[in-house]
């Protein structure tokens, strides 16, 4: 897998939770360094610039990310929240968050790593306490563990992204059908 960040989920907190990919199999970490964490904050649009993170910022971000994922999973499955996990996300959300400023050229958000993480935690609070909860779905690709907001017509979306997972699953199913047909024809 590559370290490129992906944003398919419809909310920065959901995308942040997806920075650990393939949770049930490979467990591929994308936040492998302070630079990768900073890149995620900027690429996600949470901030425009962030002061350089340190290893401790990565550790904190991963702890909050895991708490966010656990809360998302509990909410999606209709289970009670774990109090310690809830305290981790609420604690991060209580910290000062990134504050956008108006400049001569438009909106600009500069932040510290702690402020950027607080902003992500607040996005988690909003999505988990807001009207989109019934729209939370896990990707239909068995290897993918992204949770996304399904705003499709009829709420029928199956994949976090067609390019990332839908095409892979459909291609694998096609190959399996073709192989089965060839095996049946050979008998």
From TrEMBL:
Q: Which Gene3D superfamilies match?
A: Jann2411-like domain
InterPro entries linked to this entry: ABATE (IPR010852), ABATE_dom_sf (IPR023286), Znf_CGNR (IPR021005)
Which residue ranges does the record assign to the Zinc finger CGNR domain? 136-178
Stretches assigned to coiled coil: none
The superkingdom listed in its UniProt entry is Bacteria
UniProt-recorded name of the protein: ABATE domain-containing protein
Organism in which the protein naturally occurs = Streptomyces phaeochromogenes
């Amino acid at each position: 897998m590559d370290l490129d960040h992906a944003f398919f989920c419809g909310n920065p907190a959901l995308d942040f939770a997806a920075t650990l990919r393939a949770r049930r199999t490979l467990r591929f970490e994308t936040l492998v360094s302070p630079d990768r964490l900073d890149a995620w904050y900027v690429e996600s649009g949470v901030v425009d610039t962030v002061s350089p993170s340190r290893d401790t910022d990565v550790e904190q971000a991963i702890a909050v990310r895991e708490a966010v994922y656990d809360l998302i999973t509990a909410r999606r499955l209709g289970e009670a929240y774990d109090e310690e996990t809830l305290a981790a996300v609420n604690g991060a959300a209580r910290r000062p968050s990134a504050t956008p400023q108006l400049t001569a050229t438009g909106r600009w958000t500069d932040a510290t790593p702690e402020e950027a993480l607080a902003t992500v935690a607040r996005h988690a609070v909003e999505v988990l306490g807001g009207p989109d909860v019934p729209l939370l779905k896990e990707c239909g690709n068995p290897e993918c563990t992204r949770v996304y907001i399904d705003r499709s017509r009829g709420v029928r979306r199956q994949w976090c992204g067609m390019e990332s997972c839908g095409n892979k699953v459909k291609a694998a199913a096609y190959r399996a059908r073709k192989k089965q047909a060839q095996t049946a024809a050979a008998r």
